[in-house]
Amino acid sequence: xxxxxxxxxxxxxxFDDDSVEKIMYGVIIALLPASIMGxxxxxxxxxxxxxxxxxTAVLTEALFQKARNYPVTIKDGxxxxxxxxxxxxxxxxxxAWMAVVGTVVAIILGKQIFGGLxxxxxxxxxxxxxxLVASFPVAMTTWLSPVDATTTATxxxxxxxxxxxxxxxxxxxGKIGGTIGETSALAILIGAGYLLYKGxxxxxxxxxxxxxxxxxxxxxxxxxxxxxxxxxxxxxxxFMATDMVTTPITKKGRWIFGIGAGILVVVxxxxxxxxxxxxxxxxxxxxxxxxxxxxxxxxxxxxVKKNA
Amino acid sequence: xxxxxxxxxxxxxxxxxxxxxxxxxxKDKPIEKxxxxxxxxxxxxxxxxxxxxPVVSVGDNIxxxxxxxxxxxxxxxxxxxxxxxxxxxxETHPHPIGSDVLxxxxxxxxxxxxxxxxxxxxxxxSLTADDxxxxxRESGIVGMGGATFPTQVKLSPPPDKKIDTVIINGAxxxxxxxxxxxxxxxxxxxxxxxxxxxxxxxxxxxxxxxIEDNKPDAIEKLSKLAEQExxxxxxxxxxxxxxxxEKQLIYAITGREVPSGGLPMEVGAVVQNVGTTNAIATxxxxxxxxxxxxxxxxxxxxxxxxxxxxxIGTPFKEVIEQCGGFNGTPGKVIMGxxxxxxxxxSVEVPVIKGTSGILVLTKQxxxxxxxxxxxxxxxxxDACPAYLLPTRLAHFSEKAMWDEAEEYNALDCIxxxxxxxxxxxxxxxxxxxxxxxxxxxAKRKKK
Lengths: 308, 447
What we know:
The structure holds two protein chains of two kinds. Chain A has helices at about 20-40, 45-65, 80-90, 95-110, 125-135, 155-160, 170-175, 185-200, 205-220, 225-230, 235-240, 250-270, 280-295; strands at about 145, 150. Chain A is mainly alpha-helical. By secondary structure, chain B is α/β, with parallel strands linked by helices. Chain B has three domains: about 30-120 and about 290-360, Roll (Ubiquitin-like (UB roll)); about 125-285, Rossmann fold (3-Layer(aba) Sandwich); about 380-445, no CATH class. In chain B, α3 (about 180-185) crosses α4 (about 190-200).
């Protein structure tokens, strides 16, 4: 009769049917337009890198968890996202073995050593990318032209080093040099629209992040439209600065996160050593996210004002 | 953004909250009188406060409405017999709220004879504020939404607290439950009458009835009656959980925030449940104390969900049988709604004054989830009507960091469960916060 016993739990007794998996797979779906555009512009090697990174990420996570005797959680989709996002942040001509190295670093050093999903302070894909930039600086800054697959520079590089602008339409559709997934603002916006519709990202971070870049570049006499659509800002703003795990849980914290990241991008782009700063701006803001959570706690309902 | 008010209908609400499925399957089912029970088990404690002492003995013949338990303190409420018949036992019995409670077991003689002392209290105009408060106490009326706080205590604020607003809580924001909805439709004159009695007891000029906008028929019916009164208004509320939370309701209707750690009376408001208001009206009009109540029997685990008028002390089992019995093997039996109700270990427990519903979930619907790691999505933060950070509080609770939990205002949690409902990782957030609250309170007591 054990089976006929009534279940006793404390309330609530009903639950929303959304789940961690649904959110993760939603993000993967949202990344598909950018992935497809990347393959379309940069060819089969881009596809090879995407597949390599995703498979490596899932295998690394599974092997690490097996080795540590933890439950294997690769089905939750988060490793797939890390692999996919890292791939979208790689130059389309990168040797596949380097992508494997970056992915292993992203999963192990970026995520698993902190305790796995939900515990990592930094965006794992960006950790992997930062590792690759430091380890293979030349390969990580060798860009291909989507037109003829010859070596080219990114629009930000062209602007910074040679003062050559790029036309808006090419920037918008992504017919420019850059990482696999960052070039097409159009594809990113389609995915972002889906995430916003599903409620999987908070509009505050992309708005304050991109808005800050627009305002500051205008203030410093640069072309804000160019700066919004060039480089990794769009991909970063909608897919990495919105990563739930590594960004603030408070609304005020999210505003500050976006504004801070926006300032960092402009500082790096205009005065830093690199032409692009989206990934470092997000990593740095990830670093202060616990502080932001602590100091932006909302006022409690009915809280008695201190000076009243 | 226009804030809490939308232009045309002026629908009011609060910030935060969640949208669980309504599941109000019984909203069109008229209240059905339950069969007279053959035996009732009437607990001597059905309220927050001191338990009653029995004033009858085994073997006594008693009648409907006769007092069987006398309260021992100010915060208490008497209990009355809900049937006529013979007292067969006074013993501890399983109670729907927690542990066993001393209860009077009465075998009905089937005659349903009314006690001689049950007489109408007369016209509302002839009653003074004190008369009303006394008759409410004598009638054993407590908060029937589930909190079961003695009503006359709520109507007796200390003299330094000026009450200017009475709100009848017709939100019924819990999914599944429709008992208040049906009462508003079928006894609207009692709701207005009861509200007027409460206003008179408190000497208050502003009366409101707050109803969620998923009950347009109740809004229409009560609005028509309220038009004939010059100081009663029906307020349309957005359908959102926990719209019927006392603090959320007061904020939605008056714009006042009950101070952290304080009671509604500190902002001049008193909130009463629809069932309670009906019980007050019934007591004044007929003299009959609180011996029966309307409740919703519902859920996937019941064959014929219904709204029923049930005598206090009727075992859950009998009520469920009158609704066609279980639909398959029950997984969970809950007293109250799915968001804040109490899971029961047995269907032998009796219906008490605070039983707003009996919700039966099938095994499938009662399945438990394995909690996953928090992904910091902050949906709990957005949902929290007290503006807390549930994910942080649950984390502190898990790590036994009670001081941190206190600093993060755990005690302001109203335990509505919105956070646990909305969590995609199925983390038992409110459950962990409840633990932290009890630890903080225990620690404070020690000092």
